[in-house]
Amino acid sequence: MSFTVNKTRVELVRGDITLQDTDAIVNAANSSLLGGGGVDGAIHRAGGPRILEECKEIRARQGGCPTGQAVITGGGNLTARYVIHTVGPVWHGGGHNEAALLRNAYLNSLRLAHEKGLTSIAFPSISTGAYRYPIEQAAAIAVSAVREHAENYDLPRLIRFVLFSDRDLIVYQAAWDAANPVK
Ligand code: AR6
């Protein structure tokens, strides 16, 4: 599925984020920036040790990455030239500012891509794995943050959601449809 918002194409696909040919891929990292499981582990495995070295340099400078913020490194051995590491919230029931923090994770990643002049970026489903954010709610936040960025900025020109399962893809497609009813 793909859609156009202003000058940006938004795509929803099933796939593996480590294989994307976009300028940047986004990592669902943790505040330590030292790696982990899930998509974080897959990106560091596929990208090689250079990415972790850069994460450690950022840690030394700013002491990690707070929830909702984002930092950028090179892409190491990946096809993507950059990895944007963002930290989504852990789900604690919804009363701990989770929605705003998740929205910030998307918007701050897009802001970094815009500042770097990147033309394309791929996102995984942030916070919906180990961090247990209910995917229907997370998808609604993700698609509205992406739409908001695309309405206000011309870069990146391509924003791709890369969902890891058919079910996740269906949930994101439904969220997009719900947020963008056919007029
Ligand atoms: N490509 C695309 N999506 C993937 C891939 C992949 N290769 N691998 C997993 N996913 P998670 P979180 C999906 O747990 O919830 C890490 O340990 C997965 O199916 O990776 O934000 C970090 O270090 C799920 O839908 O991220 C943190 O400690 C989605 O990616 C913590 O997990 C996110 O799942 C972050 O948890």
TrEMBL record:
UniProt domain Macro: residue ranges: 1-180
Domain of life from the UniProt record: Bacteria
Any single Pfam family the record assigns to this protein: Macro
InterPro entries listed in its UniProt record: Macro_dom (IPR002589), Macro_dom-like (IPR043472)
SMART domains registered for this protein in UniProt: A1pp
Coiled-coil positions: none
PANTHER family: GANGLIOSIDE INDUCED DIFFERENTIATION ASSOCIATED PROTEIN 2-RELATED (PTHR11106), MACRO DOMAIN-CONTAINING PROTEIN (PTHR11106:SF27)
Official protein name in the record: O-acetyl-ADP-ribose deacetylase (Regulator of RNase III)
Source lineage: Bacteria, Bacillati, Bacillota, Clostridia, Eubacteriales
